[in-house]
Amino acid sequence: MAETIGFIGLGIMGKPMAKNLIKAGHSLVIYNRTQSKTEELVSMGADLKNSPKEVSANASIIITIVSDSPEVESVILGKNGIIEGIKEDSVVIDMSSISPITTLKIAKELDQRGVSLFDAPVSGGEVGAMEGTLSIMVGGDGVIYKRIEPVLMAMGKSVVRVGEVGAGGFTKLSNQIIVAGALQSISEAMVLAKKAGVDMQLVYQAIKGGMAGGRTLDMKIPAFVDGKFKPGFKMDLHIKDLKNALLAGKSLGVALPSTGLIHELFSACSAQGEGQKDHSVIFQILEQLSGLK
Asked: Is there a catalytic annotation at residue 49?
């Protein structure tokens, strides 16, 4: 008999991920702070509950995807949280991008209830969430992983268990460092081309097949050309991830000098009121610094 899945957090990423689970034939019980975001899923057959506690009492696999470490801790361990309703041998899969230190703390608390925690952050943005092509980086018990793998495969194209609980979070932080570096360098390159009077679209066509080509370039060049930065992944969320990466680096004694600089540039972008736009909006800030705005 198929397990009932609980899903908590129906934002830009969570809602299309939950829809893909329903399309794959899974039964869902759901919760979201903003109830209006649940209406489409309810119309698709999801069962709306009034709290994370109620979700966990009615599901054996519970997925969370919320904004940051405090929110995850509140949803799982707080008042009316998952831990208050959860049954032994259930599994919690946190797909948020948070501090792995928080993940390990939550895992310890859940383990005392006979519950396994997996951290399974994602990459691929809103488009990947909608198309079910996310990259999912999973940390957790290798035996229990076989139980949840089909659920994750309904939401992602690449699902890789990278180690024990916490490993998924460290992998996601590594991913976010690379994406931030790519965004920064692509933005600088395209601002240089633009100020020199060279057509950015033609620059892209010329370089995409060489070593400078890649998925980040392919995904973000339309925003640079059009000057429209509708959020697929918000700048403020990337700033949060870089903050967590820097804190992790500090705790492990790892030097992350470029990450620190990019974090400051991204933060300056947010301070100018651009934090809710796509993280590729860093291009616009570099335009301003270069006298193009």
From this structure: no
Tell whether 114 and 197 lie within a shared domain. Answer: no
Name the pLDDT band for 232 (thresholds 50, 70, 90): confident
Q: 12 and 138: one domain?
A: yes
The mean per-residue pLDDT over the stretch 185-212 comes to 97
Same domain, 257 and 212: yes
Contact 213, 182 (CB under 8 A): no
Provide the CATH number for the domain around residue 238: 1.10.1040.10
Tell me how far apart the alpha carbons of residues 182 and 174 are, in angstroms, rounded to a whole number: 13
| Contact of 73 with 106, CB cutoff 8 Å | yes
Per-residue pLDDT band for 1 (boundaries 50, 70, 90) equals low
Q: Does residue 82 contact residue 56 with C-beta atoms inside 8 Å?
A: yes
Provide the whole-model pTM. Answer: 0.89
Could you say which of 15, 172, 194, 234 is catalytic? 172
* DSSP code at position 164: S
